[in-house]
Amino acid sequence: MAFVCCYQVKQPNQMTVEEFKAWLRGFDGDQDGRISREELKEALQSLRIWFGGWKARQVMKEADMDRNGHLDNDNEIEKLVTYAQQNLHMKIYQH
Ligand SMILES: [Ca+2]
To answer: What range(s) does the EF-hand domain occupy (predicted)?
Structure first.
C-alpha cells in the first residue's frame, strides 16, 4: 500500500492529557469507562483522520496491553497518548 498522506487533522489538535481523556470519554458510547475499538474509531473519524478504522486497529495492537479489547487503564491510555503524538500528529501536553 502506498499512501502518501493518510491522515488529516483539521480540528484543534492541541490539548493536555486531561483534556484528551475528557475528549475520549465523549466517545464512550455505553459509558462503561472503557474505550473499545469501535469507540476509538469514531473518535479518530471525528478528527477526520483518514482510515480511522484501520488506525483504530493499529492503536489497539499497540496500546491494548492486556488484550481485552478495550483501553481501560492508565497504562493503556498512556500508550494511546504516545501513539497519537507520534502517528496522528496530535500535540498532547503533560501539563
Ligand atoms: Ca485493555
So the answer is: 15-50
